[in-house]
Amino acid sequence: MGVDEQLSVQERAHLRFEAEEFLYREAELLDDRRFDEWLGLLTEDIHYWMPIRRTTQAKDVHLEFTKPGGMAFFDDDLGTLTLRVRRLSVGRAWAEDPPSRTRHLITNLRVTGVADNEMTVRCNFQLYRTRLNSEEDSWIGRREDVLRRVNGELKLARRNIFLEQTVILSQNLSSFF
Amino acid sequence: MSEAIITTDRSSIDLDNCYNELTGVLDRRIFSDEAVYQEELKRIFGRAWNFICHESQIPESGNFFTNFIGEDEVIAVRDRTGAVNVLLNSCPHRGNTVCRAELGTTRSFFCSYHGWNFDLDGSLLAVPNEDAFYRNDLDKRQWGLVAARVETYKGFVFATLDPDAPKLFEYLGWVGRLGIDMMLVDGDIRFLDGVHKNRLKCNWKFAVDNLFDWYHVKVSHGSAFKVGLVTEDAMAPNDQMVILGEYGHGIGGPGLTHERQAEFDQRHAAGEGDPKWYDLHASHRTDPAIREMLGPIGFRSFGHPNIFPNLWVTHTRQMCLRIPRGPFETEIWWFNYVPADLPEAQSQQTIFRQNHIFGPAGFLEQDDGENWSHSTRGAKGTQSKMRPLNFTMGLGRDKVSNDPSGQSAIETVVNEHGQRWTYQSWKEWMQADTWEALMANHSKPPEGNV
Ligand code: FES
Ligand SMILES: [Fe+2]
């Protein structure tokens, strides 16, 4: 059963409002480089995943993305995400020193599933980054986030990131999506 | 140093003098000169045995994978006889790309422009309206896709577009073969689906140069040490070994001295003692058959092999291809493998390391790209490009030791022997007009003092 049959318009509007508030605030923390606070928004069992995308023939389109558990650009849990944040403050993390300037734009947001204390939120994003004098990167894609209510507060429990690029056109992926 | 040594006072690059192996000084315009780059595509990539894929990537008839030889796109495809063909991905009618996908399965390559249809071995099968429009005048046997020479070494597929190239086995020589054998210390391997690809704004040679570079590790990757992801002992040991091979192949990086190897063997036999940084690697090489395969010097090396020109073999069971995309851009492709008979569940640790160390989001590799792209930028500045680069570390201070087996190595501290050998060999490839000339005139790996 889809969310639209399960819930009233008011309930859906309320959930979407909550999801928007959460994800906008999360994006703000990332763009403000408040990474420690960002970690506080993640559940203990967060899974953060960006598969590799490939160009395929239309008939082989099931091969477009690599599968969970296989090769990926990101396949992180709270431990590795914490390491990614920690390395930014210990020195010699050159990919981010000088720090990148990022802006997360989130759009086309929809709550696509609800279960118990969780909701699945789908959105489109653009992550825009500039570095140094005039270096510029832009990643556009779609996210599937699972938000879970923990002690009355929403937290991010899963993030699947599907980029539109096959060959990543940037020198690295040192930002959070 | 006199001014003459630190400036390049010629208005255009001079191949014969761009690198001086006696001084270790390199004209940095080789990283930015458009004419040099075009010659590299012809003289190096057009001539070399280029790594294409592993056989397990395309196990069935019709399976294909697209790759590059220099800037030319090629298709690796298994045909109905079970052979792997490597075909130039360009239709001889108007030049259109006949295979647009990176991987997949097909019965033939059907050109999307006018419909010429090519078999899995490249031969031209059919042409629309051959009778009515071509009046049956077209000699189809003349108009297939160009097929490269293909040879494999232990499952790794290489191709060359030069009919005069020596056999792959001979091309690799013992050093290139040793580099690949290092992937096989736990037996056969299989390819894991998914090649990490990203693009850097650097000249391809800076990426190659870096794989021999154990000087940058503590600096470029300092944050990984500080958060405890890697240890200084393991990642930047002072015990280094460099192995140099014909045609520019090389292996450079950590190596166990005889004493340390003996220490390890003793500790391993007794099953006790303080674990050391090299135990993880060395424990894959206790089997006498593996030691025999790698040889008496090779089995003590944990360095990074480069299969000339652009294939880096790692100790995380990965291969990294550096594909030139113009003088100022390089695509980095990571091929990932696990032992063939290791169950999926037990492969997770290897996969974890492969996803987290290298690749554009890798804890180590994300910090490399900017250095290489800015080194490339430095090769463009009107003034900066006239100042040569320094490759003098350890020059003239070390000795090659030979083993009765025929293997040889330089056992020393962190150094730039591997880089110097790469540029010296690069120069010889660029100077030679033919494979015949290259075979006759290339330097043999040095002996004695280096
Ligand atoms: S270009 Fe391929 S059929 Fe015309
Ligand atoms: Fe590095």
Question: Percentage of helical residues of chain A?
Answer: 10-25%
Low-confidence stretches of chain A: none
Mean pLDDT of chain B: 95
CATH T-level fold name of the largest domain in chain B: Naphthalene 1,2-dioxygenase Alpha Subunit, Chain A, domain 1
Average pLDDT taken over every residue of chain A: 97
Beta strand % of chain B = 15-25%
- SS content category of chain B: alpha+beta
The general outline of chain A is: globular
Structural class of chain A: alpha+beta
Helix content of chain B: 25-40%
Number of helices of chain B: 14
CATH topology of chain A: Nuclear Transport Factor 2, Chain: A
By DSSP (H or I, 4+ residues per run), the number of helices of chain A equals: 4
Main sheet of chain B, how many strands, which sense, barrel? 10 strands, antiparallel
The number of E-state strands of chain A comes to 6
CATH class of the largest domain in chain B: Alpha Beta
Tell me what the CATH architecture of the largest domain in chain B is: Alpha-Beta Complex
Give a description of the structure.
Chain A is an alpha+beta fold. Chain A contains four helices and six strands, in the order αααββαββββ. Chain A is globular and about 50 Å long. The mean pLDDT of chain A is 97. Chain B is of the alpha+beta class and 450 residues long. Chain B has two domains: 50-153, Rieske [2Fe-2S] iron-sulphur domain (Rieske Iron-sulfur Protein); 178-190 and 200-441, Alpha-Beta Complex (Naphthalene 1,2-dioxygenase Alpha Subunit, Chain A, domain 1). In chain B, strands 13, 14, 15, 16, 17, 18, 19, 20, 22 and 23 form a ten-stranded antiparallel sheet that branches. In chain B, strands 6-5-4-7 form a four-stranded antiparallel sheet, with no helix packed on it. In chain B, a hairpin with a 5-residue loop joins strand 15 and strand 16 (250-254). The chains are: A alpha+beta (177), B alpha+beta (450). The A-B interface holds A 50-52, 54-57, 59-60, 63, 66-67, 69-75, 80, 83-84, 86-88, 90-95, 131, 166-174 and B 100-106, 192-201, 219-224, 226-227, 229, 331, 336, 344, 348, 351-352, 354-356, 359-361, 363, 365-367, 369-371, 373. Bound molecules: FE2/S2 (inorganic) cluster and fe (ii) ion.
